[in-house]
Amino acid sequence: MKSVILFCLTAVVILITASCQSNLKGKAMVEKKLFGKLSDGSEINAYTLKNGNGMEIKIINYGATVVSLTAPDKNGKYADVVLGYDNLEGYVTDKSYLGAIVGRYGNRIGKGKFKLDGKEYNLSINDGENHLHGGTEGFNKKVWNVVKTEADETAGSASISLKYISKDGEEGYPGTVELTVNYTLTKDNELSINYSATTDKKTILNPTHHSYFNLSGDMTKTILDNELMIDANKVTPVVKGLITTGEFADVTNTPMDFRNAKKIGKEVDADYEQLKLAGGYDHNWVLNKHQEKIFKFASVYEPVSGRLMEVSTDQPGVQFYCGNFLDGSITGKNGVKYAKRTGLCLEAQLYPDSPNKPEWQSPVLEPGKVYSQTTIYKFSAK
Ligand code: BGC
Fold first, then answer.
1. What is the DSSP string of 94-140?
2. Residue 7 — φ and ψ, nearest 5°?
3. Among 108, 127, 133, which is best to mutate for testing ligand 1, by the most ligand atoms less than 8 A from CB?
4. Of 30, 82, 264, 379, which one has the greatest count of Cβ atoms within 10 A?
5. Is the C-alpha dihedral spanning 250, 252, 256, 262 positive or negative?
6. Beta carbons of 367 and 304 less than 8 angstroms apart
7. How wide is the angle at C-alpha 92 spanned by C-alphas 107 and 193, nearest 5°?
8. What value does the mean pLDDT take over residues 108-117?
């Protein structure tokens, strides 16, 4: 009798534990934890978005930065697939924009100059003689205000909205811009990034997201065996200093042709002028479907883990950067030194240097108008 009771009790305990665990796994939530303190004492928090399937994305309110993102492999095993640092200090001293929102203007503006209504503006110069990713202290170095976190258990989604107010004159840009970035992790393992912004004076805006992905989850490996597809017939060629010429160049019969998926390493070191100028892929592709509201434009497949990332946007261009400037000098998460080409960025945006290319889609934002952008990174395995 005793042993029957004991057996029944054990069974009940096992059942309760299992149901608690499955509840835990099945629950979408946002968890907040202190990440670190800046030298002025201000606290930076980490917000972990969980969708209940096992995928987790951690975001800090410094640079609105994605510090980790787990994705499943073909055996359902989750691993962190973005480069980053173990602590706040890493992000404060970072010069490679790991995981951050960059702006006001993502990418380069030639000599940091542009004109609005005949008036010339001079932005801070931080990349040779040019302006890059918002200047000396871009949005990636700012403390953002967390305006909302939300978990929808029924939908299996979790989200965070962060806001940054960029003052008139910051880094040389006119107008006070209020930018809100919403990160939502959906039940379908998508990271959806929504931007919305307004200004009080005519200005320019072209923010983007700068995660470096390494789908192997092993950051000591390069991304050269990853198979990349970019749905683009044309690319915007550059001159020395990586400023666009203003032309569109056909990718046919060049190493820039990713219309059929191919390994990034296949031609990255080809004897091809555009690759030599940039030290590898670091160019903007002209996306074929950019007349559509939101469209899939790229996929990355890592053959060993089977991880697949598909990227969609409503933007006309994407900067594909294969981490050429990583040189082992950065010590990232778990003490790993990030060597050349151990991460890749797919940064949806307007064509680079658009403030000086009047024939291209304009980055001008006027008072009374709302800037918006949606870019989605979707993770699966096959
Ligand atoms: C640019 C690279 C630059 C890198 C900085 C990328 O978006 O295209 O040229 O070196 O950002 O981390």
1. -SS-TT-EE-SB-SEEGGGEEEETTEEEEPPP-BTTBEETTSTT-GG
2. -60, -45
3. 133
4. 82
5. positive
6. no
7. 50
8. 98
